Amino acid sequence: MSEPQTATPPPVPPPDDKPARAWNMLCHLGALAGLFVPFGNILGPLIFWQIKKNDFPSVDVHGKAALNFQITVTLAAFAGAFAAILLSFFCIGYLLVPMVILIGLAGLVFAVIAGVKANNGEDYKYPWSVQFVK
Fold it and tell me: Which of 22, 28, 39, 79 could form a disulfide with 115, with the two C-beta atoms 3.0–4.6 Å apart?
């Protein structure tokens, strides 16, 4: 007599992380709101982070990273613009204008790179980001 075979249960599928990855991506790409709304580059990541930070732990990490980087970019751009205005009295302030433009472009480019990586399920560490929100 042979023993009755018990059916093995099917493997449990891994949890669907697509919603978390989408929200992670939105935290980073929310910075593109700055193209349309003043301080939207900060408000976009802040809003997406606040909406889902308690639902998905990864959104808390990505939201803080995006928010910290956008605050850093904004402060750097303001400092550069202020320096350009002050130095314009000495006829050399115009030399800083391209720097301010490059800071803004870098903020957009790094946000898109981070958004793509977040959508792929990868973490992204922004360069030169100050940790304002911990």
Answer: 28
